[in-house]
Structures are given as structure tokens and as C-alpha cells.
Amino acid sequence: MPDYRYRAINQSGRIIRGAVFAANEQDLNGLIESSGLDLIEFKKINEQRLSKLFQPRVKVRDLIQMSVHLEQLQRAGVPLMESLGEVRDSTDTPRLRDALAQITREVNDGFSLSTAFASHPKLFGNVFQSLVAAGEQTGQMAEAFSQLVAHLKWTDEMSVKVKKATRYPAILAVVVTGVVMFMMSFVVPQITSLLQANGAELPFMTQALVSTSNAIRDYWFLIPVLAIGSVIGVTSGRAMSQEFKYRTDYYLLRLPVIGIVLRKIGLARFAYMFSTMFRSGIALLECLDASKRLVNNLVLAEALSIVREGVQSGVGLSMAMRSSGEFPPLVLRMIKVGEDSGNMSDALNNVAEMYNRDVDESVQGMISFIEPALTVVMGGIMAWIAIAVFGPVYDSLGKF
Q: What single DSSP character describes residue 50?
């Protein structure tokens, strides 16, 4: 359907601008009126479709603000349609405003709010839709939006932790690589040329340094080509082959230090989402299904599939988690206590908090490990250069 950009006015007299999908001008006018707006002007923007790529993306903070507003309006007893209209008119993000306009229209046409959110899967994920659906079933929409706010804030915090766990080591690695390339390309050749000019036979370590320096200086362009090619190859392989994706996920989890952090991040996502959805009254199997899709690792997802199969066959949750082999004894004990006491909600919440603390400590521990490790690598390279350069110099001086 063609795109239309419009300018309309709401009941408060505020000018609203946005873009919507509509089959024709009549359909556009109906969409705008169903949203409680009066259309002022519009124009087709098919020829400007590419420009939509440059619109600001919807950030997690935008969704948090939207959920907070909906929670407050629902607690105040404002009808849902009016709440959606208020939030739609107050958002400053064009993509989110357009999505809310369509959601408002669909709810007005008789669709449930969770179904309307489900029509925008890239914007509102499975957990978002499931919590809204649970709120509709229980009639506790304000509580559902409160859970959404907590979920979105936790997601934002976890994204920051993941970036911190990967960005800092990557920056250090780039700096170390840049320093080594500079030394090998500019400093070492000037020094070794003096040694070669003397005509003396160079020891093996010095010859290896000269060969390495020449290779980096002559073929430096292969380093970024190989790096970019490797990233593209791995990304393409993971997209095209589930087996390749499983293998890479398997080996990532078994990397020293980094693998431990990745495992804890994945399990923290599972534990928190599972706890949040279970407290909202969502069925246990549905909680496991939704949480499994959030771990971003096929090995962990397969382990959680084993948990789901066990629970579906009648096995207790703690026993099913034990059979997966991915959960430590302390977590299994906490879940078992929750099952025996009938207080699974608190038990799952304690597990989620434990994994959150573990992720914080593991990220800090990994950063504390990588920095001195790269320093040792840098020191080893500097020591190699010093020995390879000054060894022949001392030998020459000793002959006088």
C-alpha cells in the first residue's frame, strides 16, 4: 500500500504530523478519523520511501516512556482508547507515533490490545505482547504496564552490560594491534636497517623480527581484509546454517573468561524474563517458550527446550532444569524450595537477582583480566623487539 504523510489536528487543537499506510485517499481519511483526528492535508510519499530509512529508530527509552504513560493513565481510570490517543499524541518519535496510530485504529475496530501490538513484532517483542495479553486476561492492565516498565528497564541495563563486556576489550585489542603495526611498519625497519648495513650475521630472533616487519609493511592491507572477511563469513554462516550457528554458540560458551560471561548473560536473561512473566500470571510452558527465545544462544535454547519437554511431561521444574545440565546446584535448590513451599514467584525472583549480580561481577572480572592480559602481550612484543635489536648490537660491541 502507498505511504501518505499527513498533517492533522487533535481534539485539543494540537497539530499532529505523521505517516501511515493506506490503500487510497478514502482509506487514509478513515484511518485518521478513527484515530480521533481531523485531517488537514496529506501527500503521497512513495518517491520518498528511501528517506524512511533515516528516521530515528525507536529506542528502548521511548518504549519505557510510553509504558509509564500507559500505566499512569490506566491507574487513573482513563479509558484505553483515550489513553492510547494521549500517548500517541505525546510521543516525539515518528515511527512509534505511526505505530500507535495504527494500534489505536485496530483497537477501535475491535481487536484486543495485545493483538494490535502483535502486528508490530519488530517494535514490540514477544515478552511485550505476552505481558499485555496477561493483563487483558486478569483485568490488571496497570500492573501489566508496570511489569513492562520493569522489563524494559532491565533490558536496557542488560544491553549496557553486554556492550561494556564487548566494547572495552575490543577497543583495547584495536589499540594494541595499532601500536604493534606502527612499531613493525615504521620503527623496527629503521633500526634493523642499521644492523643489516653492518653486514654481520643476524641471529634467528632478529631475522624473524625483520621478516615479520617486512610482511606487515608489505601486506598490511590483508589484516583489515581478513578481519572484515571473517566477520562477514561467520555472520553469513550463522544466518544460513543452524548447525553452523549451533557450533559457533557452543565454542563461544567454552572460551576462557568470555564464555563464562556470555553464559551468565544468557541465563540472566532467561531467569529475569521467566520470573517477570510467571509473576504476571502467564502459564509455565508459555513462560518457558517466551524466555527461551531471549537467550540468544542455541546451546542454551536447546537446554531450555529440554526443560520445557520435562515440565510438559509432568516432571517438576527443578528436576527438568537439573536434566538440562546448564544450571548450578544453588539455583536448582532455590527452585526446589519454591516448589515445595508453593512460592515459586519469590524463588524465581531470587534466581533472577542472583544472576544479575553474577553478570555484574563477571563483566568486571573479565575487564580486569583482559586489560593485564593485553598488557602482557604488548610487553612480550616489546621484549622481543628489544632482544632482537639490542642482542646484535651488544655482540658487535663485544668484538671491539
A: G
Same domain, 252 and 359: yes
Give the end of a domain, one of 15, 33, 54. Answer: 54
Cell of 345: 514467584
Residues of the chain with pLDDT under 70: 1-3, 21-23, 45-55, 165, 195-196, 198-200, 393, 395-400
Q: Is the pTM of this model over 0.70?
A: no
Q: Looking at residue 169, which CATH number applies to its domain?
A: 1.20.81.30
Considering the domain architecture, whether residues 283 and 236 belong to the same structural domain is answered as yes
pLDDT digits (tens, 9 = 90+) for 190-214: 777 776 676 667 778 878 878 888 8
Distances (CA, A) of 306 to 210, 263, 269, 311: 55, 17, 17, 9
Range of the domain at 30: 3-54
The most distant pair of C-alpha atoms in the chain lies apart, rounded to whole Å, by: 99
**What is the rounded distance in angstroms from the CA atom of residue 85 to the CA atom of residue 78?**
11
Same domain assignment for residues 162 and 218: yes
- DSSP calls for 331-348: HHHHHHHHHHHT-HHHHH
Treating both helix axes as pointing N-terminal to C-terminal, what angle do 258-279 and 344-398 enclose, rounded to 10 degrees?
Answer: 170
Can you read off the three cell numbers belonging to residue 45? 510519499
Residue 313 CB neighbour total at 10 angstroms: 8
| Rounded-to-integer distance, Cα 31 and Cα 271, Å | 41
Do 396 and 344 fall within a single domain? yes
User: What is the C-alpha to C-alpha distance for residues 275 and 2, in angstroms, rounded to an integer?
Assistant: 42
Segment 61-107, tens digit of pLDDT: 888 999 999 999 988 888 888 888 888 878 878 888 888 888 888 88
For residues 235 and 86, membership in a common domain is answered with no
